[in-house]
Design a protein that fits this description.
This protein has a single domain (about 10-200), classed as NAD(P)-binding Rossmann-like Domain (Rossmann fold, 3-Layer(aba) Sandwich). Helices cover about 45% and strands about 15% of the residues. The chain is built from 6 helices and 6 strands. It has a 6-stranded parallel sheet with strand order 3-2-1-4-5-6, with helices on both faces. Helix 3 runs parallel beside helix 4 and helix 4 (about 105-130) packs parallel to helix 5. The longest helix is centred in the middle third of the chain and has 28 residues, at about 105-130.
């Protein structure tokens, strides 16, 4: 594997999940130094005990501003700066129509999927500017491009992620900060199996 990311410092949230773990493993194999962030330290340890590379695991709740600010400072302090951030942490919530959707679940989805991305962007900007620029990538979804009657909170959250991405791209492109969203279709992960099961399908 080429080392096209040699020496780059990346912060990746939701690192113990399917997309997060695969991303950490890939960028580390290409020479990046990675702060791998997830809510549970045990999950992180299990996810990366057999992955090679310069990876530092860090437990944090992306909905807590002090914790997000601390994780960025931890990455910058340990590795000497930050070149890129992948705001990937997310949850699916319930699979129910909006008239039956629990308010507490809606609020949790919006907190993780939207507030978490907002805070990740907010506290990455100064570090990226200190390096003369960098990259922010946010995990949205094809659900952020259309609707689904049984995923009202998840759909709304991913539309919001796209809005945050566009606003950041327009506001900070002049500082050399590239901001993009990825919109995955269904991927073979725990989240997708949970959504399929909630919709009455057969998990694959």
């Amino acid at each position: 594997m080429s080392e096209r990311l040699d020496g780059k410092v990346l912060v990746i949230t939701g690192a113990a999940g399917g997309i997060g773990r695969a991303t950490v493993a890939r960028v580390a194999s290409e020479g990046a130094k990675v702060l791998a962030v997830d809510l549970n330290a045990a999950d992180l340890s299990a996810a990366f005990n057999d992955v090679e590379g310069d990876i530092m695991i860090h437990a944090a709740d992306v909905t807590g501003e002090a914790q997000v600010e601390h994780m960025m400072k931890t990455a910058a302090g340990h590795f000497g700066g930050i070149d890129g951030v992948f705001n990937n942490a997310g949850i699916e919530g319930a699979t129910q129509p909006i008239e039956e959707y629990p308010l507490d679940v809606y609020e949790q989805v919006m907190a993780v999927n939207v507030k978490g991305v907002f805070l990740g962007i907010k506290h990455a900007i100064s570090h990226l500017r200190a390096r003369g620029g960098g990259a922010i990538v946010n995990t949205a979804s094809t659900a952020g491009l259309r609707g689904s009657p049984l995923l009202p909170a998840y759909n709304a959250s991913k539309h919001a992620v796209i809005g945050l991405t566009r606003s950041t791209a327009e506001g900070h492109g002049r500082h050399g900060i590239r901001t993009n969203a990825v919109c995955p279709a269904p991927i073979h992960t725990r989240m997708m199996r949970a959504i399929e099961s909630g919709m009455g399908g057969t998990p694959t």
